[in-house]
UniProtKB/TrEMBL annotation:
A Pfam family per the record: Ala_racemase_C
Family statement drawn from the similarity comment of this UniProt entry: Belongs to the alanine racemase family.
Organism whose genome encodes this protein: Candidatus Nitronereus thalassa
Main enzyme class: isomerase
Residues annotated as domain Alanine racemase C-terminal: 256-384
Keyword Iron-sulfur among UniProt keywords: no
UniProt protein name: Alanine racemase
Source lineage: Bacteria, Pseudomonadati, Nitrospirota, Nitrospiria, Nitrospirales
Amino acid sequence: MTASLSLFPPPVSSYLSPTTAIIHLHALAHNLSALRTFLAPRCEILAVVKADGYGHGSIVIAKTLAQLGITKFGVATIQEGVALREAGLTGSIIVLGATFSWQLPDLIHYQLTPVISDADTAHQFAKELSPDQTPYPVHIKVDTGMRRLGLSPDALTSLLDSPLFQGSLVLESLMTHLADADSVDPAFTHYQLDQFQSMVDQLRLKGIMIPSLHAANTAGIVAHPQSHLDMVRPGLLLYGYQPVLPFATALDLKPVLSLVTKLAQTKSVGAGEPLSYNGIFRTARPSQIGILPIGYAHGYHRRLSNQGKVLIGNTRVPIVGRICMDMTLIDITDVPNAKVGDEVVLLGTQGKESISATDIAQWQDSIPYEVLCSIGPRVNRKYEPLS
Ligand SMILES: Cc1ncc(COP(=O)(O)O)c(C=O)c1O
């Protein structure tokens, strides 16, 4: 027999993890279209694809959004921006998070757009630019109440008045971030938007014109139309969720991500037996227990121990005992036909049952953002095409 030599690695399917995040790109397109209809045609969209596209895989998500007409992308770090550039994304990539002076040469090399939040960084940045790279477009962030990154109103005025903005840098957008847009009480959001508007008015009085303003994340988009301004910055909404808002909205969204695994083993245990670490669950009846090859090292949070549910055989069954680093136990006593290799849905739909990231968030006392972003590199990503 001739040995077959190949330049390519063998097909990976035989050793891929049985745990897969299925990314429904048609749902992403649906959510974008719902957003555009809701906003249409007033605002530009800066799609937030940080944290590996909220766990969905930033490269495929950004490229799909680019195909759908998005030209601006938000990341948190230069590293995330470089990954997108190296993958061939040509649109504007805006680095929303903190930037340090030693990172500026890479930021310029990869033509990323910084969000300037302090005057020192603006000066250091201008020093890194060669004459053929100027004027370099930047966004500036002002702090209107979040008390995170951002310039104060006074610092903003003197920065924009400085010679830096007469040659080295050009202001593309002025932005702020809303701290309480998902709250029942709109007072703090109104206060922040008033602060933002009065900064803009003061700048106008000094003859400084701002080409574009943006403030709204998903909660701002959904709950505060007055925050839409020239551009919105949706993240969670694109992935099919809203923060847990105290009010219903008109937006029809579809979750983009499903998380599935396969049953690895089944076993019968008697009544009164402790399961998994520390025996925090004891069977109340003779039980059939299923073992799942997913644990907290995949991003399936340990706080789901004794709290979470999964779907198997079109039935919702409980997680029993402590979630381990690589494994989770479920009670399949009520699914008598369950067998090794059966599909188990951790997030998504099976038959008439479904589990959302919001459900999981409630079980683990968190938010859908954390549920999605936590799904780590141990989990395969499988992309279902746009159509
Ligand atoms: C500055 C900024 N804008 C927009 C977003 C997107 O927020 P959301 O996912 O709520 O739409 C984020 C995410 O945290 C952010 O940090």
